[in-house]
């Protein structure tokens, strides 16, 4: 039972354009959402997060949008750069003191073309 | 280097041997998490530890796997009598927690375990 889904395994975007990566979740108990970027043979690198009490969080070129009613979040990267080419993982965390585990999606491979 | 440190980066074992994976959290972090990633999949939670305590091990296989985070030294993920299906990348993450504040988990570069 996949509680966090990234339905697009891959995405190609031209340099300078906007990249939009999508993520859906099914568990309404999730209250904190994160995006990670991962290069081959390295660990995931934290990019940006959003609490369920917000609908938008921005950090430089990265913006995350959360639509709780649709149980959907997206990551916007603008402008996209070739160095952004990586696998992007969406992750979610539940409420509660011991419920700190992250549930990950299967990832989207982003390729930014020069 | 103030990041999460994992060693070894690569570990090869024969079926039936033991594998020990080590993780030193970021400075000041007292919460450690272990995840496993199989090829073409996302990371799957295994266990969450604080110093000397296992808080949540709901993702750990019931047999052969154990984890500890002693008062001194790194966290250890131990796999006994390894089988081919244990081949995966194992990632450790750490976080700094203040009560219920939202703090991201920061990951190490993983240990790639190969079982011959």
Account of the 3D structure:
The complex is a heterodimer of chains A (114) and B (116). The N and C termini of chain A lie far apart (38 Å). With 114 residues, chain A is mainly β. Chain A has strands spanning 4-5, 10-14, 19-25, 30-38, 45-51, 56-59, 62-67, 72-77, 86-94, 102-104, 108-113. Chain B is an all-beta fold. Chain B has strands at residues 5-7, 10-13, 19-24, 31-37, 43-50, 53-56, 65-68, 75-79, 88-95, 106-107, 111-115. In chain B, the strands form 2 sheets. In chain B, strands 2, 4, 5, 6, 9, 10 and 11 form a 7-stranded mixed β-sheet that branches. Classes of the chains: A mainly beta (114), B mainly beta (116). The interface between A and B is medium-sized, with 26 and 29 residues.
Biggest pleated sheet of chain A: 6 strands, mixed
Helix content of chain B: under 10%
Tell me the strand percentage band of chain B. Answer: over 45%
Task: Summarize the helix and strand pattern of chain B as letters.
Answer: EEEEEEEEEEE
- Quaternary structure classification: heterodimer
Mean pLDDT score of chain B, rounded? 92
Describe the global form of chain A. globular
Low-confidence stretches of chain A: none
Radius of gyration of chain B: 14 Å
- Count of individual helical segments of chain B: 0
> Secondary-structure element sequence of chain A?
EEEEEEEEEEE
What is the distance, rounded to the nearest whole angstrom, between the alpha carbons of the first and last residues of chain B? 33 Å
Number of helical elements of chain A: 0
Shape of chain B: globular
Structural class of chain A: mainly beta
The tally of beta strands of chain A, per DSSP, is: 11
């Amino acid at each position: 039972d996949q509680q966090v889904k990234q339905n697009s395994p891959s995405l190609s975007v031209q340099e300078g354009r906007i990249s939009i990566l999508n993520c859906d979740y099914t568990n309404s108990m999730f209250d904190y959402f994160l995006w990670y970027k991962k290069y081959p043979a390295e660990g995931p690198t934290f990019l940006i997060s959003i609490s369920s009490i917000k609908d938008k969080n921005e950090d430089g070129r990265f913006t995350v949008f959360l639509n709780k009613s649709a149980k959907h979040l997206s990551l916007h990267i603008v402008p996209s750069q070739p160095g952004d080419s990586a696998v992007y993982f969406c992750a979610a965390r539940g409420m509660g003191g011991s419920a700190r585990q992250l549930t990950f999606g299967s990832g989207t491979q982003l390729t930014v073309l020069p | 280097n103030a990041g999460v440190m994992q060693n070894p980066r690569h570990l090869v074992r024969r079926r039936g041997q033991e594998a020990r994976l080590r993780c030193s959290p970021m400075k000041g972090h007292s919460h450690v998490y272990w995840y496993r990633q199989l090829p073409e999949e996302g990371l799957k939670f295994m266990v969450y530890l604080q110093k000397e305590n296992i808080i949540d091990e709901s993702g750990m296989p019931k047999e052969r796997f154990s984890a500890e985070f002693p008062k001194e030294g790194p966290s250890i993920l131990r796999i006994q009598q390894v089988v081919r299906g244990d081949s995966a990348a194992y990632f450790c993450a750490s976080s700094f927690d203040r009560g219920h504040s939202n703090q991201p988990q920061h990951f190490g570069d993983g240990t790639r375990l190969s079982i011959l």
